[in-house]
Amino acid sequence: MAKLTLDDLRRKRAEAQKGIYLREGEFRGKIIVHMGTCGIAAGARAIVAAFLEELEKSGINDIMVTTSGCAGLCSKEPMATVEMLNSPPVKYGELTPEKAENIFKEHIVGGTAVVEYALGMGSERGA
Amino acid sequence: MAARRIELMLCTGTGCVAGGSFRIKKALEEEIARHGLPDEISLVPTGCNGFCGQGPLLVVIPEQIFYGWLKTEDIPFLVQEHFLKGRPVKKLMFTPPEKKEPIPLLGDIPFFKKQMLLVLRNKGLIDPEKIADYLARDGYTALEKVLTSMSPEEVIEEIIKSGLRGRGGAGFPTGAKWKICRNEPRTPKYVICNCDEGDPGAYMDRSVFESDPHSVIEGQAIAAYAIGASHGYIYVRSEYPLAIKRMQIALDQAQEYGLLGENILGTSFSFDLEIREGSGAFVCGEETSLIHSIEGKSPEPRQRPPFPA
């Protein structure tokens, strides 16, 4: 490889920073896909993949995609909860990869929950 | 790199390696592949995490969940429960000896709670064998700044102002050392990094080499620029095979990128750096012996002055 110029080095650094953003630990929100046996059977793995793909395409680096166990409403799986900083969590049910894409665009990027797919707002544990 | 949802920061410092962390790594890779998760999870071997008593250990990013005392037979359950289904595994977390409930998060564990990392700021956060990881944590920005906007004298002034001192025990002011070297009219000058670390039970140099080798290279390049040297040595004891291996990888990468060698980053500054392995004499940590050893002579200390700076 040819030696780097200053600009090359800066470009490589910026590129590398995209690869490690998860480690920096500053997040504005998270998408939790419920991955109990019920969720996985209903297709939750494809939902995770869809969210990750959208995240990758958008270049957003302060949202984490994570998983949790069964949320208890197995008939509505696959489900996901979107938690944005300073707003109540929103639970979505009966998801498809297309719905996940819409949720990402409207809720994560746009800031408005997709009421059409939402099962409920706020924590089921109460405030 | 595609977006991931989990990064597994697996400690592969010498302590954890002795405890079997490369076997854990293999088991993790197999289980991650078995569940079809390689697109969602990346496994990052890091340098020493610090909490060696809990090794082999693993930190799960982004949540920062800490798992210790891992055994290969725990891995299938861990991958399925936590990394696939999102249910962190309590029994593998750290539980203080006097308590019953585990402490899930690294930052809440008393051992880590009050740490403020300076020299080891990248430990556990980068793969020491990847220059990209170091760059991503603002690596080589200091060298960039020094070479493009500061004179050697300004660098020395800045180091004096910073109060930086040697870490070998005597605490000699680094800026003063560099100034003495700068003012020495005779050439050639050399920068030597002393990683002989002969004192029993001291592993701080090894930890830096194993977790963040590029930081040593960058520091040495800056020192070379400041004093006017174009060649340097890294003297490291041969009892540190992992440290040597990672440092050699880092040197090769830096050379490939042109961060070492002729005309670094298109400037007139040139600097070469190579490893010299010590063959295990306690006295080689002493500077005059160390220099004799690099020269291929018997490592006997000589009378000072003259002092090497």
Strand content of chain A: 15-25%
Shape of chain A: elongated
Task: Choose one word for the global shape of chain B.
Answer: elongated
Strand-residue proportion of chain B: 5-15%
The biggest chain-chain interface is: A-B, 40 and 40 residues
Main sheet properties of chain B: 4 strands, mixed
Query: Any idea what the radius of gyration of chain B is?
Result: 22 Å
What is the chains' assembly state?
heterodimer
Give the beta-strand count of chain A. 5
What is the arithmetic mean of pLDDT of chain B?
93
Question: How would you describe the overall organization of this protein?
Answer:
The complex is a heterodimer of chains A (127) and B (309). With 127 residues, chain A is an alpha+beta fold. Chain A is built from five helices and five strands; from the N terminus they run H-H-E-H-H-E-E-E-H-E. The longest helix of chain A has 15 residues, at 44-58. The model of chain A has no long low-confidence stretch (mean pLDDT 90). In chain B, the strands form two sheets. In chain B, strands 2-1-3-4 form a four-stranded mixed sheet, covered by helices on one side. In chain B, strands 5-6-7 form a three-stranded parallel sheet, sandwiched between helices. The N and C termini of chain B lie far apart (45 Å). In chain B, 38% of the residues lie in helices and 13% in strands. Chain B has helices at residues 14-18, 21-34, 75-84, 110-113, 131-136, 141-149, 152-162, 174-183, 204-211, 213-227, 241-257, 287-294, and strands spanning 6-11, 41-46, 58-61, 65-67, 190-195, 231-237, 272-278. With 309 residues, chain B is an alpha/beta fold.
